[in-house]
Specification:
The chain is of the alpha+beta class. It has one domain. Helices cover about 20% and strands about 20% of the residues. It contains three helices and five strands, in the order βαααββββ. The strands form two sheets. A three-stranded antiparallel sheet has the order 3-4-5. A two-stranded antiparallel sheet has the order 1-2.
């Protein structure tokens, strides 16, 4: 199954975030929130904290974000329509992202791994989510979106 989500803008504050009973929507919001990192690191962490539900963003995760996005803030934009290495990963507006499952997305009860495709990578990237049974809401457990991708053409000395 594939679902498409559209955002008029990048979420920029915790008030822009709410829990969802749709795991596909939660995955799409995670990608959109990561786009805010270059604008406001602290607000991004606060939004991810909401998306993690009863868990909190750990110091390890904060360090991971810093390590993976420093100088490469374009990575999360690569999941949105229109973004490509040729245009510096500048997506079309409004922001549109596809979220997909696979035959192996639901191997454990109350857990799902959903996938987004980056225009800078050859294989989809996963987001692991956990359902809170008492509310039916889905929350972020882990995201695997920030591995390296092809660098923007304008930054590539070999292009």
């Amino acid at each position: 199954m594939k679902k498409t989500f559209t955002f008029d803008s990048v979420p920029s504050s915790p008030s822009d975030i709410k829990a969802s009973t749709d795991p596909f929507e939660t995955a799409a919001v995670v990608a959109a929130v990561l786009c805010n990192y270059k604008n406001d690191i602290q607000s991004t962490i606060e939004m991810l904290d909401i998306l993690k539900g009863p868990d909190s963003v750990s110091q390890y995760e904060i360090q991971f974000l810093r390590d993976r996005l420093r100088g490469k803030e374009y990575k999360p934009y690569s999941f949105f329509k229109g973004a490509s290495p040729a245009n510096g990963y500048t997506p079309l507006m409004p922001l549109t992202v596809d979220v997909e499952d696979s035959p192996y997305s639901y191997t454990s009860e109350n857990y799902a791994t959903l996938y987004l495709r980056s225009s800078g990578a050859d294989s989809p990237r996963g987001i692991r989510l956990r359902k809170k049974p008492s509310t039916g809401e889905w929350f972020l457990t882990e995201q695997f979106l920030l591995s390296d991708i092809r660098i923007p053409v304008q930054e590539d000395p070999w292009s």
